[in-house]
Amino acid sequence: MSTRRDLLVGGAGLACWPWLRAQDDPTGGDPLGSMQYPSLREQTIGQATAKFSDAVLIKGPAFADDAMNVPLLVDARGLNTVGGGVARIRVAVDRNPVRQVLDFEPLRALPMLAFRIRMEQASPVRAFVQTKDGQWHVGSTWVQAAGGGCTVPGLTRADGSWSQTLGQVQARFFNNVLEGSRRLRVRVMHPMDTGLVAGIPAFYIEELQLVDGAGQVWWKLALHEPVSENPLITFELPQQATSGLRLVGRDNNGNRIDAEVGA
Q1: Bridge partners, 251 (sequence order)
Q2: Which CATH number belongs to the domain containing residue 115 in this structure?
Q3: pTM
Q4: Residue 12: what pLDDT?
């Protein structure tokens, strides 16, 4: 039988070998201590490694009163001078039944965006940011939520109004919000069904792009089921004016989205 002295000596011995504790850490070194993080990382970026970084900011409410509309802001401008700049941003939620939220390629936009998501329960929320040298950087935040946001129908699904507004686009620019940028706020009418409500299959926008009159793509966005109903998404574009911008995309049923975005 081990004595108290044996246990103390054993503990001191382990303390002298910190690599043992790091190696056996079931959270993969997650600063939020989430047991789900290692599987989320693998699901999001495969076998690539990722470094936790204060340069990736992800902000949400301390407590989400409405679990179907949880506001988030992701800002990766802190990596603009790292590894050639930001190539893509992937957002995921540790404890959601559908964990992947969106995949954003800024291209000619700033590496930041704001949007709303559904959350099934309190959970860490992650932003995985890949720089152009292929390295991944992770920002995290913890959001408390009332829960159930992924498993109840949205308002337009409940009252049946979604079919009258499907695919309608509202877009507006705001000048001089950030130094050297123009803010674009886009809303696309869509029920964004998660497929987790009985009798309602998954039905959501899969991709959106902002394209100019010359055919150049300013940003690309791939969305998943947890994005909130009638997605409202905010982007930051360079201040230089351009004309002929269009928002184009499609949902997972093949319905097309194509609308002019006024300057």
Answers
A1: 205
A2: 2.60.40.2470
A3: 0.89
A4: 38
